[in-house]
Amino acid sequence: MSQDARETVSFGYEEVPPEEKTRRVGAVFSGVAAKYDVMNDAMSVGMHRLWKDRFVRAVKPRAGEAVLDMAGGTGDIAFRMAARGASVTVADINQEMLDVGIERAMERGIDGLVWSRQNAEELSYPDRVFDAYTIAFGIRNVTDIPKALREAHRVLNYGGRFFCLEFSTTEWPGFREVYDAYSHKLVPKIGQAIAGDADSYRYLIESIRRFPPMPEFERMIGEAGFARTKVEPILGGLVAIHSGWKV
Fold it and tell me: pLDDT per residue over 167-186, tens digit each?
């Protein structure tokens, strides 16, 4: 089969072979790992911290629950859930991101977390071992999203819940245009100034624009086997909390 006839996936606004996207995304996050908090502050004007608090409140982690936090390398979500007594496994495909999270945990005196390098599309865990699966600002960077959703369903216990926090497309008139202008024109410049890396920040903004709209992504979650799917828009859908249950 010729290269032109092969399946392609989006890397920002570019179409590339699936394995090329996986490689490029890995390079992006290896490059920005040390500046990840700064990156999130730049893309969300600092509001990502409030969104993550709201996300964890929606998940409602409980003492003794086994939670898999996928694409959670730097620990932002895991630290919040561990504080509520959950037993959290932090998984990420990128070792540099995990290294940042481990260092942050040590600095904060947070222990008891399990850190594991994992590909969301091919988890190494057996069936039905987690009570909750969370992924925050990570699903859009997965090469094969439907496959990752099926893996999330597989590793959850019956009665387990799936929660995803992700950028989407705001439906508020006027605000959408303002944020588009900010993100496309200013965020790459901020990335260049702070991290010396405009291209990675440009990709991250483009990946948001290429992510499926809220109704489409909710449908994908249902097609992976989840029931009682729900979407909770924030700021008109600039960010959304998606959820579903394994029954």
Answer: 888 888 887 777 777 676 77
pTM of the model: 0.85
Q: Which residues in 147-180 are b (16+ Cβ under 10 Å) and which e?
A: ebbebbbbbbeeebbbbbbbbbbbeeeeebeebe
Taking a C-beta distance cutoff of 8 angstroms, is the pair 189, 205 a contact?
no
192-213 pLDDT, tens digit per residue, is 776 676 777 777 777 778 889 9
What string of DSSP letters covers the chain? --GGGS--EEETTEEE-HHHHHHHHHHHHHHHGGGHHHHHHHHHTTTHHHHHHHHHHHH---TT-EEEEET-TT-HHHHHHHTTT-EEEEEES-HHHHHHHHHHHHHHT----EEEE--TTS--S-SS-EEEEEEES-GGG-SSHHHHHHHHHHHEEEEEEEEEEEE----STTHHHHHHHIIIIIHHHHHHHHHS-HHHHHHHHHHHHHSPPHHHHHHHHHHTT-EEEEEEEEGGGTEEEEEEE--
